[in-house]
Amino acid sequence: MIALPAVPLVGSLLGATRTVVERTVATATFAVSVPARAEALLDNVESLIRRVDAVVNDAAVAVAQVEAIIASTTSVVADADAVAGQARTIVGQVGTVATQAEAIVGDVGTVAGQARTVVGEVALVAGEARTIIDSAGRSADIARELLETYEPLARQAAPLATQFIEELSPEEVHAAVLMLDRLPELSERMNMIMPILGTLDTVAPEIHELLCVVKDLRQAITGVPGFSFLRRRGEEKENSDDE
Length: 243
What we know:
The chain has five helices and no strands. By secondary structure, it is mainly α.
């Protein structure tokens, strides 16, 4: 039998034993520290869970706020669409109003031209009115002078005029109106008679002589036998023709 060296083997065993013991101690130490580490880890996990819960709650609140914001944004967008439609309507109305305003401006220009014409005519009328006023002033002065002149006569003639009006009947007024209506005809006839009346001075002796001749002729005819019979017969015939 071969004898083995004892020392090196023992050293190896001691070293291995030491290593095992150290590892066992380290294992035991680790095993002993594992609960504490696990508890700390659990605390960290619970804290992390609480943080996650808080984050989830915050996220839920944020989501609700985002939903509210989205709803508000949708309402705002709808309102914006409505406002945009109203704006388009207003723009169309503004265009119509602008067109009408242009037409009104054109009418205003026309009215302004007409107003200038009217102002010119008014100026002319004012000038004529001023002339008429001046003439009326002169006429008023003349009328005042006439009133001053004829007022005494009018006061004296007032009783006579009153008596004339009181004694004047409607028939007389009607006859006067008819006479006034016939004045043009009477004037024409007088114009025809006036030349004849102007020659009466020269014709009067001839007419007197003619009347004397006619008188002598009548006396001569009356002396003719049977003339009275013929005259009566002529009168009877005239009477029968009248009937």
